[in-house]
From TrEMBL:
<dbReference type="GO" id="GO:0004022">
    <property type="term" value="F:alcohol dehydrogenase (NAD+) activity"/>
</dbReference>
<dbReference type="GO" id="GO:0051903">
    <property type="term" value="F:S-(hydroxymethyl)glutathione dehydrogenase [NAD(P)+] activity"/>
</dbReference>
<protein>
    <recommendedName>
        <fullName>alcohol dehydrogenase</fullName>
        <ecNumber>1.1.1.1</ecNumber>
    </recommendedName>
</protein>
<keyword id="KW-0520">NAD</keyword>
<keyword id="KW-0560">Oxidoreductase</keyword>
<dbReference type="InterPro" id="IPR013154">
    <property type="entry name" value="ADH-like_N"/>
</dbReference>
<dbReference type="InterPro" id="IPR002328">
    <property type="entry name" value="ADH_Zn_CS"/>
</dbReference>
<feature type="domain" description="Alcohol dehydrogenase-like C-terminal">
    <location>
        <begin position="207"/>
        <end position="334"/>
    </location>
</feature>
<dbReference type="InterPro" id="IPR013149">
    <property type="entry name" value="ADH-like_C"/>
</dbReference>
<keyword id="KW-0479">Metal-binding</keyword>
<dbReference type="InterPro" id="IPR036291">
    <property type="entry name" value="NAD(P)-bd_dom_sf"/>
</dbReference>
<dbReference type="GO" id="GO:0046294">
    <property type="term" value="P:formaldehyde catabolic process"/>
</dbReference>
<dbReference type="GO" id="GO:0005829">
    <property type="term" value="C:cytosol"/>
</dbReference>
<comment type="subunit">
    <text>Homodimer.</text>
</comment>
<feature type="domain" description="Alcohol dehydrogenase-like N-terminal">
    <location>
        <begin position="39"/>
        <end position="164"/>
    </location>
</feature>
<keyword id="KW-0862">Zinc</keyword>
<dbReference type="GO" id="GO:0008270">
    <property type="term" value="F:zinc ion binding"/>
</dbReference>
Amino acid sequence: MSSSSSIDQPNVITCKAMVAWEAGKDLVMEEVEVSPPQPLEIRVKVICTSLCRTDITAWESQAIFPRIFGHEASGIVESVGEGVTEFVKGDHVLTVFTGECKTCKHCESKKSNMCQVLGLERRGVMHSDQGTRFSVKGKPVYHYCAVSSFSEYTVVHSGCAVKVSPQAPLEKICLLSCGVAAGLGAAWNVADISEGSIVVIFGLGTVGLAVAQGAKLRGASQIIGVDINPEKYEKAKCFGVTDFLNPNEYNEPIQQVIKRISGGGTDYSFECIGNTGMVTTALQSCCDGWGLTVTLGVPKTNPEIASHYSAFLSGKTLKGSLFGGWKPKSDLPSLVNKYMNREIQVDEFITHNLPFEDINKAFTLMREGKCLRCVIHMPN
């Protein structure tokens, strides 16, 4: 028994990873050592990972380096740590940047997806022991959102992975581990858009267009898209946007234009840019009495939101949204099934497919506004 159990014990893996050594500088392909999974962790062979704007925001501004970014990913379980019963080697999984322990107060509540044990990890370490599973030449390399998918192999807490059907294409559904799911959930779970309503969306990137898709599927009568990039309009129409507004083309505040074309303000406003000033504009764009504004973007600067109290006296509501309100383990499998049944669009968000070594090109494309999602394909 002892010899077979020792054979089964996972060892350190040496593989390739794209390491960020300093803010805003190109990622560097490095040989990294990936530790075996610790108790309640799994080690995953990453198959595909897509670049999310939040990765770029953190890469440009955060001080924790060296670091392996990436959090929107799909892969196959390579090994499991002690105490893991939910996964076995060979399982197909999505990684998630916020987990679900299923036992904390928030996980047990139907009102929240903010797990108190496996929530958003900001310090560059693992939830369980505050350590890192990556090193280069013996020196620690830090994690991002406890996922770090810009590596051929990564280690995640078993509560931050979701088992999916082996029939689901990993090179497509990786988008459901963050951006597309976040937008759909904001429309369905957070705003609960009603049929016949009027919606405005600020920012027509992946998240904004996923909100538009969610609004369209709920039967919204008018979906107004606001973006300063006119090249996005044709793509936006595919996801249900009916009106396109470029604020640079108007001599009046864009919220006044929106109120005019919506007959007094929209039922729902979504801020998908990560600009706290735009949250105020979104609030001013929705109608008195029941207008609801949902903010989804992660700001690079000026994190405080300022708004006049009269907006709230008039009955408007401002809500935040993390991952669209989805509980990842409980809810993501049904989203994957919706994709498999062609009830939701995912493929249409993928504008580029790139090999792992071209990941810096993906960063450039997204910074220049030339892509929705670049899917990065790992070597076989």
